[in-house]
Specification:
about 100 residues, mainly alpha, about 60% helix, binds zinc ion
């Protein structure tokens, strides 16, 4: 394994897929540990998690009394865009 800077990877995408479940506390502790370990070394994923958390809270605030259900496709699409933007916002290496 080359010891380079952490780059957006398949793992980031996998973590992204898990994050919404993570927020719903529906993941096994093992998986939460895995996500937290990844977040400790991946600022874009941390930023994304913050965006996700805010979005989820916003969605829930619009539906008082409703059971917090799975995120809608619309919200997922929006979150995916946020995530892609976070990944693209990373320095791609080299001097700025
Ligand atoms: Zn990541």
């Amino acid at each position: 394994m080359p010891a380079g800077p952490h780059r957006p990877s398949e793992e980031c995408r996998r973590i992204f897929a898990l994050l919404s479940e993570y927020l719903d506390a529906e993941l096994p502790l093992e998986t939460c540990d895995e996500i937290e370990a990844h977040l400790s070394d991946c600022p874009p994923c941390v930023e994304f998690l913050e965006s996700l958390r805010r979005t989820v809270e916003l969605c829930r605030s619009f539906e008082p009394g409703e059971m917090p259900g799975p995120l809608s496709e619309e919200v997922r699409a929006e979150l995916r865009q946020l995530y892609e933007k976070a990944l693209r916002g990373r320095p791609s290496g080299g001097a700025p």
